[in-house]
Amino acid sequence: MKSYKLFVLGLFFIWSCAEEDVNSPSQSDVFIKYYGANANQAVDLATYTYLENDVEETGYMILAQNESDGIQSDFYLVRTDKYGNEVNSVIIDVAEADSASATSTVDIPKKIKPIGNGQFLVVGVISGSLNYLGAWIEIDTSLNSTNIHRVSDVETIDIIKTDDNEVIILGDQNERIVIRKLDFDDNLIWSSEVDFTGDDEALALFENPNGNLFIVGSSRAYEETEGINIFALETNSRGTAESSDGVPKILNESTASNDDIPTAVIATPWGYSITGYTLPNAQNGNEPQGFVVNVSRTANILYTHVFEFPSNSSNGGFESTWPQALTVDYAGFLSVVGRLPEFPGKQDEMMVMRIHPSLGLQESDYGSCRSFGRATGDDVANAVITHPLDGDLVIAGTVDFGSGTSLISLMKLSETGDLVD
After folding, report:
1. Do 293 and 261 form a contact (C-beta atoms < 8 A)?
2. CATH number of the domain at 36-332+350-355, please?
3. Residue 255: how many CB atoms within 10 A of its CB?
4. Smaller CB count within 10 Å for the chain: N or C?
5. What is the reported pTM?
6. CA 88 → CA 122, 278, 281, distances in Å?
7. Where are the domains of the chain?
8. Do the Cβ atoms of 12 and 372 come closer than 8 Å?
9. How do beta strands 229-235 and 213-219 pair?
């Protein structure tokens, strides 16, 4: 178990995502919490609320990946109180039972899902195992893993709990997408497959209000389109598309040679919002450009926004952006976080930008985009949620301290974009 540490870090505060603002006013002596030792990478973030002795306990659960020796990696969970103070933490070797593996296994956590009363489901992939490809874990707020469900034939990417107290898992199998419903004793209720082109990858699974399922992922090719494309698909409650309405919707509007990489999806009042980045683009020297695609619950495109920040480079074009996660903020806008690569004189910065659902990038009290980070090292914002009570943005990130040390960070931004202790 890792001990909690609270340090004062000098964080650059950048008013815009354009290069010329690298010397803009900065905030120093700002408290930011961080956790862990050795090499870590934040993955996902959730809040918890439960009653203990008639007292309401609230705080955050951070899901991360821990590398102890540079080869093997494990699931790493940190529980904090509502102020970000670490309560406890645990490292879980998901493939520990696979003693037959000839090499070290790499456990890759993907999602953490609250299921009520301080309970969570964690899902991820196992690489390097001879017997397992994925796993999902039942976790309580004390970080006790009450049951580890290892999966032998599917890389498990996402999971939801259903109203009938069963789970549906979404995963990859031989470049096909697999959807399965199981009970908590691992008994199979039903299974279905989605096979668009033979080279498909799952990203996210949701349950629509009508009980149908909504799936987002990527496909290497579709009909005459080349490159990687984003798809979205609504199925019935058993994961099957039974009519022409179930044809997968290809959501990218870029040229055929582009690779469109979705990185995160959230449910929104209008349906779903998908963020990611596009590679390559001749306008900006093959640098990635971030995007948001808003779709309905039936996978119809509502609005598409590409992030274009003009570059000062002699080659022109736009600055690169790598979105990693998004949330709906207190005002109903989208807040997108990720990283901005290689600012002059520094390394990658944490990125935070604000998107109107229909109008795109929006100026606000903190401009349309802000970045945070240390003077050296590559920093990235990996996950973000909107606090349900105060409306603050809570961001879990990865802070690079050099020499192989990267720690999990937790910071809050107020509705005006200021760092909150």
Report:
1. no
2. 2.120.10
3. 13
4. N
5. 0.87
6. 17, 38, 45
7. 36-332+350-355
8. yes
9. antiparallel
CA distance 44 to 113: 9
- Pairing type for strands 369-373 and 349-356 reads antiparallel
Output the DSSP codes for 350-374: EEEEEEETTTEE---TT-SEEEEE-
Name the DSSP class of 288. Answer: -
Tokens of 191: 């299974």
CA pair distance 25, 16, nearest whole angstrom: 11
Short-list 219, 297, 293, CA closest to 251: 293
Buried b (16+ CB within 10 A) or exposed e, 106-133: bbbbbbbbbeeebbbbbbbbbbbbeebb
Q: Which of 194, 192, 125 is closest to 154 using CA atoms? A: 125
Backbone φ, ψ for residue 82 (5° rounding):
-70, -15
Given a contact cutoff of 8 angstroms between Cβ atoms, the answer to whether 413 and 421 are in contact is no
Please give the C-alpha separations between residue 414 and each of 24, 59, 68, 246, 420, in angstroms, as whole numbers.
Answer: 20, 17, 34, 41, 6
Q: For residue 202, count CB atoms less than 10 angstroms from its CB and return exposed for 0-12, middle for 13-18, buried for 19 or more.
A: buried
Q: Please name the residue that has the structure tokens 């399922």.
A: 213
For 36-129, where are the E strands, in sequence order? 39-52, 55-67, 73-81, 86-92, 106-116, 119-127
Per-residue pLDDT of the chain (421 residues; tens, 9 = 90+): 333 333 333 444 443 554 433 333 333 434 589 899 888 999 999 999 877 778 888 899 999 999 866 567 899 999 999 889 999 999 998 876 555 554 568 899 999 999 988 899 999 999 888 788 999 999 998 898 889 999 999 999 999 999 999 999 999 988 889 999 999 999 999 999 887 666 788 999 999 999 999 999 988 765 555 678 888 888 889 888 754 455 556 665 444 457 888 999 999 999 999 999 988 644 445 577 889 999 999 888 898 888 876 555 545 455 678 899 999 998 888 999 998 876 555 578 888 888 888 877 665 554 567 778 776 778 999 999 998 888 889 999 999 888 888 999 999 988 767 787 7
Check residue 3 and report its DSSP letter: P
Instruction: Count how many residues are written for the chain.
Output: 421
